[in-house]
Amino acid sequence: MSANVLEISPQAIISPMPEQISSELNGEAVILNLSSGVYYGLNEVGARIWQLIQPPCSLEKIQSALIEEYDVPPDVCKQEVLKLLLELKNANLIEISDETAA
Fold first, then answer.
1. 33 with 22: CB under 8 angstroms?
2. Confidence category of residue 8, pLDDT binned at 50, 70, 90
3. Which tens digits make up the pLDDT trace of 79-95?
């Protein structure tokens, strides 16, 4: 598996880690990793993804919701969602169950 690509099955469940708190601010999200003390900011689309995983949900549901809500081609949506999930995972802000090994 490449270090900058995350392979996730469409049925994988994405959920926030317990060691964080978050807040919405003007349509964006601010997340504090309580373990590291580091703040992370998400733009409008990132905040929407964060909102979608508050009850943990599948990658497939995240992508379907974004394609429905934003004018984005499915392949671009998938690429951008995976990129953000990799960043959130590396920051220990989310858990991904049922990852596939590439």
1. no
2. confident
3. 999 999 999 999 999 99
- For 56, half-sphere exposure in the C-beta direction (CA atoms, 13 angstrom radius) is 14
Range of the domain at 67: 16-91
User: Is 102 a domain residue?
Assistant: no
Q: How many domains does the chain have?
A: 1
Q: Is residue 79 part of a domain?
A: yes
- Output the six-digit token pair for 91: 């920051």
Measure the CA–CA gap between 5 and 35, rounded to whole angstroms.
Answer: 25
Residue corresponding to tokens 């995976």? 82
| Beta partners for residue 39, in sequence order | 32
The answer as to whether 67 is a domain residue is yes
